[in-house]
Amino acid sequence: MTHTPPILELRDVDTFYGPVQAHFGLSLKVGRGEIVCLLGGNASGKSTTMKIILGLLKPTAGDVLVDGTSVLGLSTPQIVRLGVGTVPEARRLFGAMSVRENLLMGAFTRDDKAGVAADLDRVLTLFPRVAQRLSQQAGTLSGGEQQMVAMARALMAIPRIIIMDEPTMGLSPLWVERVLALIRDINAEGVSIFMVEQNANLALQIADRGYVLQTGRVVIEAAAADLLVDARIRDAYLGGAEAA
User: Fold this and answer.
1) Disulfide: which of 106, 127, 134, 235 matches 153 by Cβ 3.0-4.6 Å?
2) Dihedral (CA of 196, 198, 201, 206) sign
3) How far apart are CA 33 and CA 75, in angstroms?
4) 217-223 sheet: strands from edge to edge
């Protein structure tokens, strides 16, 4: 039987910011079709993990693999071409550009114009609220609408996995529910999701598995359903929001 590698894997990663060590032998994986969330408090190493995956920071030791192939030394556009999409913290839209222009920026690594046009139609079907805002400047949208645009933009790269950094940060409870429902919809289309999320309770309700990071080390790894009832997680994270 052929072994299928995880779509994303970090193996024994050590990371430093100057003399300060941010990761200590960090290992985690995301299987095909999974939603996996990464939980942790301040200075736990969550944001650094995202930077490592996207090639924005190089670890001192260890490896990062996409579909079994090391991506160390590759640029962020090269990693995107391998099927890794991203929804960054605070969305990072081009505020002065239209929603349509922002979506097309998600396809910047592609040169198949017909395919891009077809995918734009498909994405707008998934995000009808975005379809209603195509000609608006992205900076004039509400926070929830901007988050939808950021997610739709990520899909324009035809990703096999999307890395999401705090997708519900700063959103009203209604928008939080909408965004998490859309993450489930995206996952149902076969896209794996790896998310750092401040709202541990809601994240674990839609995730398959979770990792808890503490001062650069994975201290707990379990099925999301088990983490929801774990007293350590409940006391540390489910009593209130925790920051990145």
Assistant:
1) 106
2) negative
3) 25
4) 84-87, 161-165, 192-196, 35-40, 209-214, 217-223
Report pLDDT digits (tens) over 87-143.
877 667 877 889 998 998 888 777 788 888 888 888 888 888 888 888 888 889 888
First to last CA, the chain: 41
pLDDT for 232 equals 77
Tell me which amino acid residue 227 is. L
Residue ranges per structural domain of the chain:
1-83+159-238, 92-158
Give the three-state DSSP class for 145.
helix
Write out pLDDT tens, residues 15-34.
Answer: 998 899 999 999 999 999 99
Angstrom distance (rounded) from CA 82 to CA 67? 9
Question: If you search the block for the tokens 């088990």, which residue do you land on?
Answer: 226
* Residue 7: partners with Cβ closer than 8 Å, 6 or more residues away: 30, 31, 32, 66, 67, 83, 160, 161, 192
Both tokens of 26, joined, read 């960090």
Which residues are within 8 A (CB) of 226 and not within 5 positions of it... i.e. 6 or more apart? none
Which amino acid would we find at residue 81? Answer: R
pTM over 0.85: yes
Q: In 142-218, where does DSSP find H-type helix?
A: 143-155, 173-188, 200-206
Can you say whether residue 81 is alpha, beta or left, with left for phi > 0 and alpha for psi between -120 and 50 degrees? alpha
